[in-house]
Amino acid sequence: MNILVCVKRVPQTGGRIVLTADGQAIDTKFLGHTISPHEECGVEEAVQIVEKEGGSSAVLTLGPAEAEEQLRDAMAIGIDRAILLETTGGEWDPVSTAGAIAETVEAQEAAHGHFDLLFFGNEAADTGDYQIGVRVAVALGRPVINGIKDIWFTDDRHAVLARREAPGGGWETYELPLPVVLGVKEGLNLPRYPSVPGRLRAKKKEVERVALGSSPSGALGLGAGEDSAGLGGAVPGPTKLLLRLPQEERSAAEVIGRGAEAAPAVVDMLERIGVLAR
Amino acid sequence: MSGPVLAFIEHAGGEPDRLSLEALAFARSLVTKLGAALEAVVLGSGVEGVAGQLGAHGVGAAHVATDARLDDFAPAAWGAAIRTIVAARAPAAVVVAGSERGNEVLAHVAARLGLPMAANVIEVTPGNSWRLVRQRWAGSLLEDAALDAPIRLLSVAPHAVAAAPTAATSVPTISTFAPELEPADLVARVVRREPKASAGVSLADAKVVVGGGRGVGSAAGFANLEALAKELGGAVGGSRVVTSLGWRPHSDQIGQTGLRIAPDLYIACGISGAIQHIVGCKAAKRILAINTDPDSPIMAVADYAVIGDLGAVVPAITAEIERRRAPA
Ligand SMILES: Cc1cc2nc3c(=O)[nH]c(=O)nc-3n(C[C@H](O)[C@H](O)[C@H](O)COP(=O)(O)OP(=O)(O)OC[C@H]3O[C@@H](n4cnc5c(N)ncnc54)[C@H](O)[C@@H]3O)c2cc1C
Ligand SMILES: Nc1ncnc2c1ncn2[C@@H]1O[C@H](COP(=O)(O)O)[C@@H](O)[C@H]1O
Fold this sequence. Notes:
The complex is a heterodimer.
Chain A: E1 2-6, E2 9-11, E3 33-35, H1 37-53, E4 56-63, H2 68-76, E5 81-87, H3 94-112, E6 117-121, H4 132-140, E7 144-153, E8 159-165, E9 171-177, E10 180-184, H5 196-204, E11 207-213, E12 239-244, E13 254-258, H6 263-272
Parallel strand pairs in A: 1-4, 1-6, 4-5, 5-11, 6-10, 7-10
Antiparallel strand pairs in A: 2-3, 7-8, 8-9
Helix pairs in contact in A: 2-5, 3-4
Chain B: E1 5-9, E2 11-12, E3 15-16, H1 18-34, E4 38-43, H2 48-52, E5 61-65, H3 75-89, E6 93-97, H4 100-113, E7 117-125, E8 130-136, E9 141-147, E10 152-156, E11 173-176, E12 190-194, E13 208-212, H5 222-231, E14 235-238, H6 240-244, E15 265-269, H7 275-281, E16 286-291, E17 304-307, H8 310-325
Parallel strand pairs in B: 1-4, 1-6, 4-5, 5-11, 6-10, 7-10, 13-14, 13-15, 15-16, 16-17
Antiparallel strand pairs in B: 2-3, 7-8, 8-9
Helix pairs in contact in B: 3-4, 5-8
């Protein structure tokens, strides 16, 4: 199986989001970065499948030069090679991102042979646009299904079986002929931590770089730019104007007590709010 | 004159889905701003009953594809059916629920039409260029955005608006249509279903949830939380740290990449309150935090707090409940 995993570099936000003064991004001065959790599972799954079935795995990201860090993380747990679509300036809109990824997949396949599986996260952790994987699949004319938490193959290895949770509970299974695009979700597997030798090996592996520059839709420019190559005439967007924090209605907690001695006061509260009544 | 707003309605068991009704309420405020008509698309065989109910939610015309190939989920085919109506009606906007399926189907529509799509929108202002507010980070962050397209494709964030029937109930005009499906549209479709394993209270439905984080210390440490949950007729959940460490299965994870819960009471034990966790539990009516650190971020969202070691506090609460329940 030859597999490509598309990952995105996102800030590792914690207790409270702080925005940059211009409201265009999360202030990451004091933050690390990570791969979105769904995609981490995509990376792990690709490594496991290649370990079992043979073939090779690649990881791709569209992002700033620093996103090389996330590509190395993926290679540290066993991905064979990496492609960085290097951008400058701000964020790319989902239409332009998908266009660039689809073009790259075609170029990669012309050079290295086709991918049986393309893995995407169900949604990116930061923007949550819920569309890049589907757009790439449609551009390439491949079947695609999202929400996947279980992957296995038919005996002849011509098709993949993929399972997702049904809306009301339970599971639904899809059977798709290869090549296929899957949007995966956390819970698919338990991603391993990179080992020290893995990290050392990853350092030596090559990252193929493609310079993309700034977004074809422009940072604040509306409508398609001149060189919206790869978009196939699609209208880019939406265009981010400003980020802001939602207003929270809750106020600080009432401290009921300290340590085990607080138990009677807690149970008084449970009785008061009616969760103890049976 | 603006084209209609087309709302896509998911349904189950002959009833429109709750999130789709929320999307309809959202679409209703949009048609008021536009001075446009509100129309709906409903897919699957025998769904006229679903369509008929939409009059109470302001729908004037419902387009129904009674095609058995659309009965079960097939995102490309559902998208193709929506495109059939988009081609016929030239809507100003297509509005769907920001559900897993809604977002997935709209992505297919967007990709095939070569149009942008905005997911999890909470506000929209039509104009020369449409302005919208949408959720990022599962709602921890908001984005003001511009959308410039001949047809605006929007999914509505769950619970951004309430699903409320209109004052004036009307009977929608129901017309059936034959969706234009290509064989490729039907490749991704459900081939097998497994029902829900019904064992006890599920985390999603529990009235009380006892959540554990890194502060629980180990997989074994969850025994205390299980005992308290049992006493309260509730379920146990956890943070991403405890599922990543393998202390709990991923199905127990609450948060952005896990479950979103809305119990009457959420007891957060040894959980710091990272935004990605909070988006999964902030719909709880009340939150009790048990934490050694009085300054941990969970204190800003909790209603009640006990400062202390959960290893002592949790069993003490369980014991106190048992003591009060014991016949005198
Ligand atoms: C893209 C992305 C998505 C994510 N999605 C999710 C998600 O869906 N769900 C989720 O939960 N997280 C998610 N996370 C992770 C999240 O950012 C936090 O890392 C995680 O929620 C922290 O878990 P925690 O509170 O258990 O651990 P910590 O942050 O380590 O907090 C432990 C807490 O326990 C307290 N404590 C320690 N010992 C005790 C004791 N003996 N008694 C009482 N209190 C004690 C400490 O004071 C501290 O407050 C995501 C992260 C990213 C980047
Ligand atoms: N900049 C990017 N580079 C590589 N892959 C991406 C990028 N943005 C999104 N993706 C992939 O597309 C998936 C869905 O993203 P989205 O449609 O933005 O929610 C993500 O989980 C990633 O797998």
